[in-house]
Design goal:
Layout (H helix, E strand, L loop, with lengths): L1 H12 L3 H21 L3 H21 L3 H21 L1 H17 L3 H20 L4 E5 L6 H4 L3 E6 L2 H7 L10 E5 L2 E7 L15 H12 L3 E5 L6 E5 L2 E3 L4 H12 L3 H15 L5
Parallel strand pairs: 1-3
Antiparallel strand pairs: 1-5, 2-4, 3-4, 5-6, 6-7
Helix pairs in contact: 2-5, 3-4, 6-8, 6-10, 10-11
C-alpha cells in the first residue's frame, strides 16, 4: 500500500502544467461529444460499441483464441464502417463546436421563449386550432429542418399563432425552434413505429412520439379536436396540461433542469389520472 502511495506521489511531482492542460482539453472534447450525441441514435450505437469492446477484452483475458481472432479482424473493417455510420454526427459535432458560443442563450432569453410559446399555445387553444412545436435541445434537428420551410425568425407568439392558422400554407406540419429562433415550419416528423393498443392518439401525437424516441427534443402538441395540450419527451406523452402546467414543465425542461422537468411531468400525469402513452 505504501509503495502504491509513493508511486502516486512521484507521478504527481513529475506532472507539468502542459500535462494538466492536456487532460483538460481531452476532458472538454469528451464532454462536448457526449452533449452533441446525447439523446440520438449515435449515443445508443456508442453504448453498443462499448459493450463489444468490453466483450473483446474479456475474450482476450479469458484466452478465447478463436473469439479474440474474430474480433481483431472485425476491428480492421469496423473502423471504416464506424466513420461511415457516424459521418452526420461528426459533421454536426465540428459545426457545433464553432457555433456553440454564438448560439448560447441566457436564462432571461430562455424564459422569454417559454412565455412566447405558452402564449401562442393558449391563443391557438382558445380558437380551436391545432399545433405541433418541436424545441431542440442537445441533439440537432437538422434532418427535420431540411424537410420544412426555412424561416430563421425570432420566437414570437403572434408569428407562431399565424403559422398554425388553418388557412396559411405553413400550418400543416411542425415548427422547429432552436434557441430563441423559429428555424423552420411545415416540417415532417418521423411517426412512432408503434403505439399502445387502444390509445386514441392522432397523427400529431404519433409524430411527436416518433421524434422524441430518436432525439432529446421537447415537443408540444395541441389537439385541434379536443383542444388538449400535451408535452412529449423521450417518447412519453403527458396530456391535459393547462397554461400554468405547460409553463412549469417547459421551464424545467428547457432551463437545464431536465430531471426536474421529468418529475414535474410525471406528477402532472399522476394528478390528472392520465397515462403516458
Amino acid at each position: 500500500m505504501n509503495e502504491l502511495l509513493h508511486a502516486f506521489m512521484r507521478s504527481l511531482h513529475s506532472l507539468h502544467w502542459y500535462d494538466a492542460l492536456d487532460i483538460l482539453v481531452v476532458s472538454w472534447m469528451i464532454y462536448k461529444i457526449i452533449l452533441i450525441i446525447k439523446g440520438t441514435r449515435a449515443f445508443r450505437m456508442i453504448i453498443g460499441l462499448l459493450l463489444i469492446v468490453a466483450f473483446s477484452l474479456f475474450s482476450r483475458w479469458a484466452k478465447l483464441q478463436t473469439v479474440d481472432w474474430l474480433f481483431q479482424h472485425l476491428w480492421q473493417v469496423g473502423l471504416f464502417t464506424l466513420i461511415v455510420l457516424f459521418q452526420p454526427e461528426l459533421r454536426r459535432m465540428l459545426a457545433d463546436m464553432g457555433a456553440a458560443p454564438l448560439t448560447a442563450m441566457g436564462q432571461l432569453q430562455k424564459r422569454r421563449v417559454v412565455e412566447e410559446i405558452v402564449a401562442a399555445v393558449r391563443h391557438l387553444q382558445q380558437n380551436g386550432f391545432g399545433a405541433l412545436i418541436a424545441v431542440e435541445r442537445h441533439a440537432k434537428l437538422d434532418p427535420i429542418v431540411e424537410t420544412g420551410v426555412i424561416m430563421n425568425s425570432p420566437v414570437n407568439r403572434d408569428l407562431l399563432s399565424t403559422i398554425f392558422y388553418p388557412k396559411t400554407p405553413l400550418h400543416d406540419g411542425a415548427v422547429v425552434i432552436r434557441g430563441d429562433i423559429i428555424v423552420a415550419a411545415r416540417c415532417l416528423l418521423p411517426l412512432a413505429s408503434s403505439v399502445p393498443k387502444g390509445s386514441l392518439i392522432g397523427t400529431r401525437h404519433r409524430a411527436a412520439i416518433g421524434l422524441t424516441e430518436e432525439t432529446d427534443a421537447v415537443v408540444i402538441v395541441l389537439s385541434e379536436e379536443r383542444r388538449e395540450v400535451s408535452v412529449v419527451v423521450g417518447g412519453k406523452l403527458t396530456k391535459s396540461l393547462d397554461s400554468k402546467a405547460l409553463s412549469r414543465v417547459l421551464s424545467n425542461l428547457l432551463l437545464k433542469e431536465e430531471e426536474k422537468g421529468q418529475k414535474v411531468m410525471a406528477s402532472l400525469s399522476y394528478e390528472s389520472g392520465g397515462r403516458n402513452e
